[in-house]
């Protein structure tokens, strides 16, 4: 019962269990909150229903996930609640304490499953018994409003006494039966003194004689009774009068429950046994079984429909546009006359940004969701290939957009398979090369600026330049010996390219890397390869943090406005004539000893620009994918957050743009895709 | 009036007819299925897109959605492609895309019973016969009925990018 079951189950089931644990903790927390808010009041039907629902959900969930021990307490609790709800049993103030205790017991069981903490079965049984007792007692009790019948059982004066737990150990004289004493009548008498359902009897053989010597008239049994009773010690001793000598009987009494009954209120007569003092729930955070207080997990999660989140993101996007519009209008106003307005707008901008940050963070999920799929995959593949592989992951908690997570899983899986199949060598080969027979495959994720960078690093053989070139030639992919290593590596992304000498069921079908590239590009990402022969290879996927909103620099070219993503901008400058040079008929600018090509946006986009000569305009220095360039624009307008809108929703892909956005004036502006611009520039 | 129209429509749908939005391009009258029309608006604030054919005027912001604008006058070489406050853009919603088309003028919404629609002969209309579903007659005037869905989806207009597969589009839409 106390052992956590999760350990033997598969990872997937564990995830479901996790959901149940969370739900359960939430339900318990809700229940506790309601109960505590009640004080000693009787819950109204709505609160009663809420408590009932919580108990019911826990029971249902526990049943489904196979935590049958948890259903035991919840079941009794649910029954009691159901009867209270239907007014079959009158409410008693002590019930609140009882429910709180039951909640704690469930929380303890939950902790047992979740974290493998010890579960005190006695506590659970006790709670369960008392719940049951409340049901039993309540069932016999009159419905509220009716005059109470005279109670049976203990004498009237004893009814005032508080119940307490007594443990009796009775070691009778072996000759007791010969004196005509019947144990069953003693048991029956004791049971009558005990509170309903609170009587336990245990018989133990003290010694086991040989069968031949066994005398049925000798009593060899030791009796233990546990009972919760209002009866006095005398009453109990009376039962054993004429039966037991003092030394044969041991009685242990617990302190009676010190819950003070408020004056004027009738003593709890419905069989409700107040628990051992109400805990100070509000301050005793470390109380055993206090749920929802696991570390800093007080703020539990709750599930929200994805469409609602997306709607929220869209609305925040619209808000950003409106805010940008207002700011733009405010620019034209006299700052002295409209000082308060300006101040308000600054505040609005700050608030909008905060709101946007919070909303975007809702969509972020840790990449471990994807990484967790790989240990199994790697193990299986490695076994199939006869390779020894150690998988390491880093940056598991790096968060990225929920929409990207799913889309990156496949390309990443491809890269992992590829690394195992083509990258890492067999243990023999590795040993021959002087490497450890166990290869290492590392997956790491990190956030670099506005992008998420995911590396797949293996310490295998690395990419083989000659083999790739030969294969490219064979597949009719344009290539030449003069290509740089990086250009050669990029060849593997060409459609139909595969260097595996034989087709395996893992990789090598020739549909692989090009699909990886396509999928990654589709979500605004890029793949880079670094490789060193004999040392290994590193595939780097870089993705935008989110696809929905980006920081941009808006620039003007003629009548049009463009957005340059801020994460590619290094600086902007007005070039001096001596900085401008021409190389092979192309304009370049010399910045700190480096010649950068000048990309004239008006040429690339066929626009009428005011500025066509670099020395009269502004150059925005950018860097993307390791390539640098200076973009010539007429003017810098603003730095703002823009909501990325798809042009493709209603139109087609536009070369050189990574989408569009709506500016404050309601116009559409294209967002520049720098790597694509560099390519377009080269083709001009 | 409304009830009369309602019953007329009911009758029309019963015998295979439909309602058409009529517009003019140059001297010709065209009709498109009214159910494909989302709205009609003026022409303003179009953002140019580089390296596109002249009839793609660019994109506009239609309440947060980016919508391409096609000038059918330029595409079909009719009328005069001038833009002023009376220039009309019909916003069409077909193939899960919203597209604006610029026409010379929007005339009316007419109901045409199925029997009054004749098949389109090989005729010298500015529009290719492929995109014409038939010819209707209205007040002794010929109405060229356009299959706007086919036209928008055609390679000729280059609105739908046939090289981009759906998954990629979705990815960008996120």
Automatic annotation (TrEMBL), chain A:
EC number: 2.7.13.3
Cellular component, GO annotation: cytoplasm
Residue stretches making up the HPt domain: 9-113
Broad EC category: transferase
Pfam families reported in the protein's UniProt record: CheW, H-kinase_dim, HATPase_c, Hpt
Species this protein is from: Geomonas paludis
Biological process, per Gene Ontology: chemotaxis
InterPro entries assigned: Bact_Chemotaxis_CheA (IPR051315), CheA-like_dim (IPR004105), CheA-like_homodim_sf (IPR037006), CheW-like_dom_sf (IPR036061), CheW-lke_dom (IPR002545), HATPase_C_sf (IPR036890), HATPase_dom (IPR003594), His_kinase_dom (IPR005467)
Catalyzed chemical reaction(s): ATP + protein L-histidine = ADP + protein N-phospho-L-histidine
Region annotation Disordered: where it falls in the sequence: 138-162, 252-294
Protein name, entry field: Chemotaxis protein CheA
PANTHER family referenced in this protein's UniProt entry, alphabetically: CHEMOTAXIS PROTEIN CHEA (PTHR43395:SF10), SENSOR HISTIDINE KINASE CHEA (PTHR43395)
TrEMBL record, chain B:
Annotated CheW-like domain residues: 17-157
Primary location group: cytoplasm
Cellular localization per UniProt: Cytoplasm
Pfam families: CheW (PF01584)
Keyword terms, alphabetized: Chemotaxis, Cytoplasm
GO cellular component assignments: cytosol
GO process annotations (BP): chemotaxis; signal transduction
Top-rank taxon, per record: Bacteria
PANTHER family for this protein: CHEMOTAXIS PROTEIN CHEW, CHEMOTAXIS SENSOR HISTIDINE KINASE-RELATED
Protein name, UniProt field: Chemotaxis protein CheW
